[in-house]
Amino acid sequence: MAITTLELDALKPKDKPYLIREKQRHKLDGTLAFKVLPSGVIDAYFIYYIDRKEKQIKIGRYDKKGKNGITLKAIHDKYDELSEEYQSGQGGVDIKVKKQQEDAAKEREKQEQAALERKRQLQGSFQQLIDSYIDYAHINMSKSYYTSAKGAFALNLKDFDVTIKADQITQEDIRAILRPIRQRGALVMANRMRSYLSAAFAWAIELESEDTGLCAPIADNVKFFIKVNPVLGIGKPLKKESPADRFLTELEVHKFWQALDASGMHIHRKNILKLMLCTGARVEALAGLRWDEIHLNQRFIHIPPIRSKNGLDWIIPLNDIGADILSTTPRLHDELVFPAENGIEPLRADGINQATRRLCEQSGIAVFTPRDLRRTFKTLSGKAGISKEVRDKIQNHALSDVSTKHYDLYDYFDEKYEALKLWNVALSRIIDGSYAEFGLKPVAAVLPFKKTA
Q1: What angle do CA 64, 70, 75 make, to 5 degrees?
Q2: Which of 345, 427, 371, 393 is nearest to 150 (CA)?
Q3: pTM of the model
């Protein structure tokens, strides 16, 4: 029979705790009991048996009004709940142990959720991955790779949601990035972008793997948690790239030079493009020129190893056209010869590329890239009679022979200087339109060439 509130309130404390049990309706119901403590407080318990051993689960502390404990009704409700659970196990399930297991499972789940939340807070976005990889490339990769990758990301990710967590990027996301590049017909750029994305994800995976030796400039506490490179399995948009063999003919060089002079292109971009034709140098090397690298009195440019693609000093003799271009270049920066508008970094190669494309389209010249001017120098100076060996030296092509690895800073200077003087005559006649008088004969066949012993 159930104990009433009046009966509970009438219970008196004793020196030792004592237990009052309700009459058990069925052995599988469990028993509701009340323990009266010497202090006078009363605790309710659910009593049950496992393997004939008595077990207890505390229901709560009784309080008639429920202010400092729970009411008798609430105690009965909890008893019914425990009794039903005990009955469902037919007396063979220790509901106390079960509850402990359930509580432990809830605690594990709570901890897992907390860990996931900590991971979410630490987890880097796609933009953070790209920024970190670009910082890494700036320190560890070549200047040309860094510039190209940075420009490709800036151009081709501007319409993509880069706030997505890096490890949530899927193959479909990669396809979505490459799709507009393919649609505008820039398949080579699509190949490059695919390569840069793959490299960035591979770098992040290696960065967070065990025993990695990578040094990564990355924001504190940022992790990417990338397990699989999403670019893997996505084929190249352009399966087979044609070898780069575009070069300008003498007529195209003539038209291009005249178009440069007549255009509204900034003089710094004009002069970089002209210097490429004069010297055969790389666009990045010329765009990054510093005033202290130019020695007009000695007629040469010295590109230090840190800015040279092959990591070697690069001495470029200056012919008359090249020297005139540099001597008339306005000095708008204390250190940089061709500064960007922000006054912090040199002109960007991609900006020069875009300006060249616009000028070609405006002038009716078949579109080419600034890199093609380097190839044009190589081809037309060879046609003018300059040997491949000297042309390679002028353009700082890396050779693998021992003498190249341990060479004099001014090795081949005289040969390069004499060759560029010869090219100066040929280029002058190309610019003024009189190149046709040579026909198919090399310029060297009709011009004196002083060989240095």
Answers
A1: 100
A2: 345
A3: 0.50
Q: Domains of the chain by range and CATH?
A: 5-115 (3.30.160.390), 123-242 (1.10.150.130), 250-445 (1.10.443.10)
Distance CA 404, CA 392 (A): 12
Q: How far apart are the C-alpha atoms of 34 and 32, rounded to whole Å?
A: 7
Give me the average pLDDT of each 10-residue run along the chain (453 residues): 86 93 78 94 91 87 90 92 79 70 81 68 85 90 83 92 92 95 87 93 82 47 85 84 73 93 94 95 92 94 86 90 95 93 88 90 88 92 90 78 50 88 93 65 44 36
Task: Identify the CA nearest to 136 among candidates 204, 190, 231.
Answer: 204
Tokens standing for 418? 């004499």
| CB half-sphere exposure, 161, CA atoms < 13 A | 7
